[in-house]
Amino acid sequence: ETQRLEAQSKALRGEITGLTKELEELHKQADSDSKLIVEIMHERDILTKNVIKGDERSKQQVELVMRHEAQANTLDKDLKRWKAELQLKLHRTHELDKQREKYSGELSAVRGRFEDANEELKNRDNTAAQLKKHIADVKAKLSQQKNLYEAVRTDKSLYAKNWVESQEEIADMKKKFRMMYLQIEQLREEIKEKEKAIVEQHFELQFKSKEKEKTQ
């Protein structure tokens, strides 16, 4: 029974070591991607200020990147907490091994401790399985982020071109608006003059009509 538990403990330690290395690599990748996110966000913000502010697609991209950053930060905190718990549990396992060797005569008491350790190993198995699933999810999200970064890079040149064209169109529209404004003001003056003439003609007709009625 003792050998079986030792074999399980050794196998789990190997698996935990592998997972720890994989998590560290993933954490480094997440840090690298986070820096890339900051750079891309800075470039995107500069372009967005000069392009139409109501671009809904840009807002959705920013929100998506922010959500991925928050998820990466949450994962980093979870990894740090898990590593601390792992070190504590490994230390406790080591202490149990020392006690088993020292108190070999008290086999029944040691077996009780190993039963507790076995239950703890099962819990770790469950935790490791959940962590593997979490890692797979994070990898999928990171892949989605990379695709999004490529799309942002591609769109950046298009945004710059559109911005230049927009500035030219805006300048042309301003010219047209100034001309239209002058034309409108001129029309207003003409309308005022015509209205004034119509009113004067109306009063003149009324006056002539009254004079005609008096003579009849």
Low-confidence stretches: none
Q: Helix/strand/pairing class, anyone?
A: mainly alpha
The H-and-E topology, N to C, reads as: HHH
What Rg do the Cα atoms give? 40 Å
| CATH topology tier name | Substrate Binding Domain Of Dnak, Chain:A, Domain 2
Helix content: over 70%
The CATH class designation is Mainly Alpha
Overall number of domains: 1
Spatial gap, N to C terminus: 138 Å
The tally of helices reads 3
The total strand number stands at 0
- Overall average pLDDT: 74
* Overall 3D shape: rod-shaped
CATH architecture: Up-down Bundle
Protein name: Cilia- and flagella-associated protein 58 central coiled coil domain-containing protein
InterPro entries: CFAP58_CC
GO cellular component, one term: cytoskeleton
Pfam families: CFAP58_CC (PF21771)
Task: Compose a concise summary of this entry.
By secondary structure, the protein is mainly alpha-helical.
Q: Can you tag this structure with a few keywords?
A:
216 residues, mainly alpha, Substrate Binding Domain Of Dnak, Chain:A, Domain 2, 3 helices, 0% strand
Structural write-up:
This protein has 216 residues and is mainly alpha-helical. The chain has one domain: Up-down Bundle (Substrate Binding Domain Of Dnak, Chain:A, Domain 2). It has helices at residues 2-50, 56-102, 107-215. Helix 1 runs parallel beside helix 3 and helix 2 (56-102) runs antiparallel to helix 3 (107-215). The longest helix has 109 residues, at 107-215. The N and C termini lie far apart (138 Å). The mean pLDDT is 74.
